[in-house]
Every structure is written in C-alpha cells, then in structure tokens.
Amino acid sequence: MRVLFITSTRIGDAVLSTGLLDHLMHAHPTARFTIACGRVAEGVFARMPNLERLIPIEKKRYGLHWLGLWATVATTRWDLVVDLRGSAIAWLLPARRRAVMRGGRRPGHRLLHLAQTLGITPAPRPVAWFGAAEAARAATLIPPGPPVLALGPTANWVRKVWPADRFLTLARLLTQPGGALDGARIAVLGGPGAQERAMAQPVLDALPGAIDLVGALDLPEAAAVLSRCALFVGNDSGLMHLSAATGTATIGLFGPTPASEYAPVGARALAVLAKGPPGNAPMGALTASHVAAEATTLLARPEAVAA
C-alpha cells in the first residue's frame, strides 16, 4: 500500500497531523508513506517509520508549488491520498481513495478537524519520532541528574511571547526549595535564526547556568531532548506541540491566539490562558504565579510524575 500524505508548511500543524499518520501505520503496517510538507516542518517526519519519501513544498507565486508537487507524484498510482491542505491535487492524481480536508476556519480544535478528514473518532493524539542518534545526543545534552525544566520563550509572532521576566519568576517559583521542581536544572529551547535568539537572550542572560539549546537542535533532536525533560513551559509554538507529542508534561501559554483551536494535545498537556477575551488577550495579563500553580497541579497528577 502506498500513501501520499500532504500536510502543513508550519511545524505546529505538522505535529498535530502525526496522529493521523500513526493511526494509518497501525491500520496498515506494511504501507509506505510519502510525505509532502513545508521545508521547515520536514524534521517532524524525518524519523517516522515506513517513510518512503519526504517532499518539501516551497511556496511559489500563483500556486506553482502545487504544479511542482503534482509533477513529482503524478506518475505513481496511490492507494490513498490524504490532503490536509484542502487543495485540488488529490483529484488530479491516480488514487484508489482520497481524503481531503475541508478548508476555512471553523469551531473546535484543529485535531478534531484533522481526524474528521479520515472519519476517525476519537481523534488520535500526535506522536513524536526520533532515532537512536538523536537519543544519544540528547543524553549528552541532558545527562542523568536532577529533573529539567524546559522553557520555550520564543514564537513566530511577537504578540504570542510571554514577557521574559515572567519566565524568570516562574523558573524561580518552580525550582526553589519546596517548589514543584525543587533543584531542577533549566534548559532554554528555541529555533534557529537571529529573531529566535533575540527573544530567548533575556532569559538566558538572567539564567547563566541554563542549558542553552536555542538554535542548536533539529526537530528530531528537539523531540529527543524534550522527552528527557520533566516539564516544558512555552509560548504557543511548534515547539510546544512537539513537547506535548513526546509525552512530556507540557504547558502552553496563550493570549492572542485561540487555545480552543491550538491548545497542546497529549496525555500530559495543558493550555494556560491569559486573562481577557479568549484568543485576544495580552500575554502580559498572564502571571507567573498562576502558571506556577497550574504547573504544580499538572505535575502532581499520577500520570505526570517527573522522570
């Protein structure tokens, strides 16, 4: 069985779509998968089982990227084409079955919309894939010892960024004597590029002993590192979704974006919202004490005991 799976250009949406792939792999253990996604999201799928080919989609004017993708895959007869971009390409390819996600904004979490494309209930949770090499590198970056609090102070939009001083207060509240992560080490994660470094630098400057992983990891390595952490707290971002997919206790911080659509999804994941209109609140309205209290409650759950 050969499956063409067309998914997002963005990391967060790509991570959310991994639940569908995991479902399909369990339903069809011998299937071979071709994944078409944005170049920045390639790492989400680079270590997935049964991967036959990974095709990066680079957006071009006039939708010419779709023509390029069609030319790449049109000579294969597909058993299943799953198009989560809602394009017309699935209908222009030879396929036994097609599943095309309806476009446009609608109520409900993105994960439910994805699952509806294949008629799956309940919606399968996202997963994170990494290999032995990534696990080995993560073990050198996060060696055995006290638990690790991972902070994600970056985002792709400045309004989604929680103030740096709140991250610092939160770290102190959680790691101080008697805190939920008493004596924990701190790791700071972020993507590549000057903008991500600039967002993270105030936190790093105030935490000179923190493990600086900003721009240092590809996505499979980031998944491996996050899987070794006791708790991740970060802005609404692809990194937040990746953390939740690893099974690590994860808190996503939301203000001007709708948690009802993009809250982190996992066995140990939680969205904490700033005070104000849902999806339109300022990040400054979210206090460190409130996040610390939510983190303490999350970590106290039997299934969320820090590793």
UniProtKB/TrEMBL annotation:
Signal peptide (UniProt feature, chain positions): none
Keyword presence, Transferase: yes
TM helices/strands, residue ranges: none
Molecular function terms from GO: transferase activity
Pfam families: Glyco_transf_9
Record keywords: Glycosyltransferase, Transferase
Top-rank lineage group of the source organism: Bacteria
InterPro entries: Glyco_trans_9, LPS_LOS_Heptosyltrfase
Transferase is among the record's keywords: yes
PANTHER family assigned to the protein according to its UniProt record, in alphabetical order: TETRAACYLDISACCHARIDE 4'-KINASE-RELATED (PTHR30160)
Name assigned to this protein: Glycosyl transferase
Protein species of origin: Roseomonas fluvialis
Species lineage: Bacteria, Pseudomonadati, Pseudomonadota, Alphaproteobacteria, Acetobacterales
